Amino acid sequence: MRLDKRLAHAGYGTRSEVRLLVKSGAVTVDGSVVLDAGFILNDDMEICVYGKPVLSVENRYIMLYKPAGVVSATEDAHDRTVLDLLPPELTHDLFPAGRLDKDTEGLLILTDDGDYSHRLTAPKKYVTKLYHAAVSGTIDQHTVEMFAQGIALSDGAVRPAKLCIIGPWGDTDWTEVTVEITEGKYHQVKRMFHVCNANVEYLRRERIGALELDLTLEVGQWRHMTKAEQEAACETGEKIRSAE
User: Which of 101, 103, 115, 214 is catalytic?
Assistant: First the structure.
């Protein structure tokens, strides 16, 4: 890890503030002053600021109930981002592990752990994502079979997905469904239904792997994840994989 990133994680300021701190000569690594903020650290190195050891900082894993209208990005020139929903002091180096469309709500994981994010999002990992949706148009057993076979999109066929029909959506003519996929292509769920001559009117992600959205959270709220939850989110979809 870079020295400036490590110090920012430990609460010594933003990256730019940390660079000034390092440049001032206040930081030592294994007893020697380091003036290069990009210095690469090893796990066993001792870092001190003004002679006081920097305590170890673990990676952060945050569950967010993402609202519609917020983009899954670290910054945006026009819209609020998911980081805007957190206290500023927690946002250093955080990023969304995967994404949800701007108008989609539900479970989103924020982290500063790149390896963990890869485990969640890499298609070859087969981590399942479950969505709850309201869909307009005709949804029947033929649609279920099309999803199970794998639907061809403009940028290639997607893997087999599990579509379950729940029933009517309230007093509308929409259909309530759940969809389970093991990929995360751009607007994938919406595009799959579009191929079937249907439109997604409402979409919420409720599960990643075996990690379910904590419904005690209000829309827009967040909390830290437990270690058990971190591992649960990485559970793979072997049943869907074996069906291919």
Answer: 101
CATH of 58-244, one of 3.30.70.660, 3.40.50.150, 3.30.2350.10, 3.40.190.10: 3.30.2350.10
Provide the terminal-to-terminal Cα distance of the chain, rounded to the nearest Å: 39
CATH topology of domain 3-53: 3.10.290
Task: Please give the Cα distance from 167 to 164 (Å, whole number).
Answer: 9
pTM: 0.77
- Is 101 assigned a catalytic role? yes
Please identify which residue in the block is written with the tokens 């591992």.
231
What would the pLDDT profile of 71-126 be if each residue is shown by its tens digit? 999 999 999 999 999 988 788 889 999 999 999 999 999 999 888 999 999 888 89
The C-alpha angle 185, 236, 112, rounded to 5 degrees, equals 70
> Which regions of the chain carry the CATH code 3.10.290.10?
3-53
